[in-house]
Amino acid sequence: MANANTIATADTAITAPADRPADDRPTGAAGAVWDALSAAPDGVTVTALTEASGTSRATVTKALTAFENAGRAARTAGQGTGRGRTPDVWTPVIPSASTGTGDAATAAPVNDAATAPTSTPNAAPGIGVISPDTLATAMQVLADESDRRAATAELLRKAQEEEAERRARVDAELRKAEQRETARVILTDLLSAVTTTLAAIASDNDEQITRGMEDIARYAGSVRRTTRATTGTRTSRTTGDRGAPLPLRPLVAEHLNAYPDLEFTPGEIAKVLDRSSGAVANALDTLVGRGEAVLTCERPRRFRAANKTTDGTSVA
Questions:
Q1: What's the CA gap between 136 and 158, in Å, rounded?
Q2: 128-137: long-range contacts, CB 8 A cutoff, minimum separation 24
Q3: Which of 119, 171, 216, 279 has a Cα at 20 to 30 A from 301?
């Protein structure tokens, strides 16, 4: 039985024929690859071997496969990372002298636990792995940003509420000022009408008295409407007024005759007289039936005073 040499590696024990010389260098391109591999006892990648041997990558791969099958090279698989995988690392297997008796030498087994490397040669550190500190910092930044946005939204909401309240106050003040100015104008006109009517009474001018009373009635209605708009309440009539209301038809006729060239709806006259529009409409229909008023339009219904002829009769 032929003698054998034992070739020990970090991971296994390989037995090679004893008659193979330790410096058995391959010929050709494989020899260049072997030289480059032997020059890197700590391990080398295929890319580095391709550059060091001056051969192609296919030649290096083929030669390494042959070396591995012959027990002259060992491969350490690359490690997976977050972005891919590190390249395989190749190391040369250098034959060592064997010991034994007889015709054969027994290869000494290698204790895997004792000889296993504590770390992978030239193992590349993990790429793309986020450290816990970096992750914690990023989470804190996101939390701070969320708090900032919430605080900004709250400030904006309060500012909008304050602006809405300010505008409401300004609008209320403007309405109050407009209502007071309207009341001032109406009361001034009413005072002028009262003064003029009193003067007409003193001078016994019936035409001016009638016109003045119409103006006073109109301004009085405006005063009531302004009072409702200002205070939000209706001006109620006294008990005596409800128990003994003034006749409505003469008041409606008097209003039409005061403005013979104008047309009025029942609602317009009702506002001036401060009566219901239905009651005024009934009074107008009675006046039309008696020939004292004329219906000039059906929709909306409009009325005017009937024109008087020279003999006192009414014409349309």
A1: 33
A2: 128/81, 128/82, 128/83, 129/81, 129/82
A3: 216
CB distance 4 to 17 below 8 Å: yes
Q: How many domains does the chain have?
A: 2
pLDDT tens digit string along 49-106? 899 989 999 999 999 999 899 888 999 988 877 677 788 899 998 766 543 434 433 4
Domain that holds residue 111: 4-115
Q: Count other Cβ atoms within 10 Å, centred on residue 139.
A: 10
pLDDT reading at 296 higher than 60: yes
Residue 263 burial (CB count, 10 A): 16
180 residue type, one letter: R
pTM of the model as a whole: 0.28
Q: How confident is the model at residue 231 (pLDDT cuts 50, 70, 90)?
A: low
How many Cβ atoms sit within 10 Å of the Cβ of residue 217?
Answer: 18
Asked whether residue 256 is domain-assigned, the answer is yes
Give the DSSP letter string of 47-88: HHHHHHHTS-HHHHHHHHHHHHHTTSEEEEPPPEETTEEPPP
| pLDDT value of residue 314 | 54
Identify any residues that bridge with 293 across adjacent strands, giving them in sequence order: 305
Boundary residue ending a domain (115, 130, 156): 115
Query: In the listed set 47, 80, 115, which residue is the last one of a domain according to the structure?
Result: 115
Closest CA to 277 of 264, 287, 261, 290: 264
Does position 211 have pLDDT exceeding 90, yes or no? no
CB atoms within 10 A of CB 63: 24
pLDDT at 13 over 90: no
Is the four-CA dihedral 46, 52, 57, 58 of positive or negative sign? negative
